[in-house]
Design brief:
Layout (H helix, E strand, L loop, with lengths): L15 E6 L2 E6 L5 E6 L2 E2 L17 E2 L5 E3 L2 E4 L2 E4 L9 E3 L9 E5 L3 E8 L9 E10 L2 E10 L5 E3 L2 E2 L2 E2 L10 E3 L2 E7 L5 E6 L11 E2 L6 E7 L7 E6 L6 E6 L5 E5 L13 E6 L5 H4 L4 E3 L4 E10 L4
Antiparallel strand pairs: 1-2, 2-3, 3-4, 5-15, 6-9, 7-8, 10-11, 11-12, 12-13, 13-27, 14-26, 16-25, 17-20, 17-22, 18-19, 18-21, 21-24, 22-23, 23-27, 24-25
C-alpha cells in the first residue's frame, strides 16, 4: 500500500510509505529506501524534501556499502585492485555508496512501521551481492530504524554504513543551535574532504563535548573517539539557545563515528538551513585505510539501529 494513487504522476522518489503513531509521523520512500519526512506533534524535526522534489544533498538517504568518500574511487581488497564510478566528479571521489538511488521493495506496511528491502547486485568496483533490509517505525520513543545487511555472495566483502538525515528546530537558525557531539577527536581533511590525519578536539574550536553554539563554524567533519553511553551507544543533540526545544539522534554501538555537516555547500534555500547528523560505522575513505572497516563473510548479517528523539524524549 502506498500513498500514490492510480493515474497520478509518479513522484521522483517513487512510492511514498507513511507511518504514524503516538503523535509521530514519517514518510519512507522507494528510491533509496530512506526517510523523506519526520515530525512529532506537528513539528518537523527532519529537514527533508517535498514529494515532487528529487532528494537534495543526500537528505534521509541510506549510505551503503560505504559512507562518505573514497579517494579517486580506488581501493584494494582481497588482492584485487578495484575502481568505483566517480559519483562526485568535482572532488574525484566515489560518494555515499551504491544503494541511495536504487529502488527498494515493500516487504510489509503497518500503521506505525514499514519494512523495505533492496538487493545490491555485483558490479564493477564492488563485485559482491548484498541484501539490505530496513524496518522504520514511530511511536512514543520517536523514530527508530533497524537495519540488516547480508552478504549473499561466496566471498568476504568490505562494508560500511551510514544514514544522512538533516535535523532542524523550526525557527532556530543553524548559527544559534547548541550542538553536543560526544567525541574526543576529529578527522583532518584536505581540500577534497578526504582524511589526512586526526586531531583531538579538547578545548578547541571543534570541541562540542558540551553543548555549544555552532555560531559561524563551517562543519563537514567526521568525529571519532566517541564517548559511549551505558547501553553501548551514543547520541548527538541539537538544542535552542534557551534549551526549550531540542532533538536528539542516537545510534547503537555499531556506530563509532558521527559526521556533522552544516550544509554550507548546499545551494539556494537549503544553504545552511539545517544540520546533517550522520551515525557512521567508519570514517571517510575506510575502504583504503581499513579503519573500522567491516568485513562481511559469506551469509553473515550485520545489524544496527538508530533513531531520533524529539524534544526531551529519551
Amino acid at each position: 500500500m502506498t500513498n500514490v494513487q492510480a493515474g497520478r504522476r509518479r513522484p521522483p522518489s517513487g512510492a511514498q510509505w507513511m507511518i504514524s503513531g503516538d503523535g509521530q509521523e514519517a514518510v519512507v520512500v522507494e528510491i533509496g529506501g530512506g526517510l523523506r519526512t519526520y515530525r512529532a506533534d506537528g513539528t518537523d524535526y527532519v529537514d527533508g524534501y517535498a514529494e515532487d522534489e528529487i532528494c537534495v544533498g543526500g537528505a534521509g538517504q541510506v549510505l551503503a556499502p560505504w559512507p562518505n568518500r573514497i579517494r579517486d574511487g580506488q581501493y584494494t581488497f582481497g588482492g584485487k585492485s578495484l575502481q568505483l564510478s566517480l559519483t562526485e566528479p568535482v572532488r574525484n571521489t566515489a560518494l555515499h555508496g551504491l544503494v541511495n538511488w536504487l529502488p527498494w521493495r515493500l516487504e510489509s506496511h503497518e500503521k506505525d512501521a514499514v519494512t523495505v528491502t533492496c538487493d545490491l547486485m555485483p558490479q564493477p568496483g564492488y563485485p559482491w551481492p548484498l541484501h539490505l533490509r530496513t524496518r522504520w517505525s514511530v511511536g512514543v520513543g520517536g523514530l527508530r530504524a533497524e537495519h540488516e545487511v547480508t552478504n549473499v555472495g561466496d566471498e568476504p566483502c568490505p562494508f560500511g554504513f551510514s544514514v544522512h538525515p538533516y535535523l532542524q528546530l523550526p525557527g532556530v537558525a543553524v548559527d544559534d543551535l547548541l550542538l553536543r557531539v560526544p567525541a574526543r577527536s576529529r578527522i583532518l581533511v584536505d581540500g577534497r574532504l578526504l582524511p589526512i590525519g586526526a586531531a583531538k578536539v579538547s578545548g578547541g574550536d571543534f570541541d562540542f563535548t558540551e553543548p555549544r553554539r555552532i555560531g559561524t563554524a563551517v562543519l563537514d567533519l567526521a568525529f571519532g573517539d566517541v564517548d559511549h553511553e551505558p547501553d553501548g551507544g551514543s547520541s548527538v543533540t541539537l538544542a535552542s539557545p534557551d534549551g526549550s526545544a531540542k532533538v536528539r539522534i542516537w545510534g547503537d554501538g555499531s556506530f563509532g563515528w558521527w559526521q556533522v555537516f552544516t550544509g554550507d555547500t548546499l545551494t539556494g534555500q537549503r544553504n545552511r538551513r539545517s544540520v546533517a547528523v550522520e551515525p557512521m560505522t567508519c570514517p571517510p575513505d575506510a575502504f583504503r585505510s581499513g579503519r573500522d572497516l567491516i568485513v562481511l563473510e559469506p551469509d553473515q548479517t550485520w545489524r544496527a539501529s538508530w533513531g531520533i528523539h524529539p524534544g526531551d524524549q529519551q
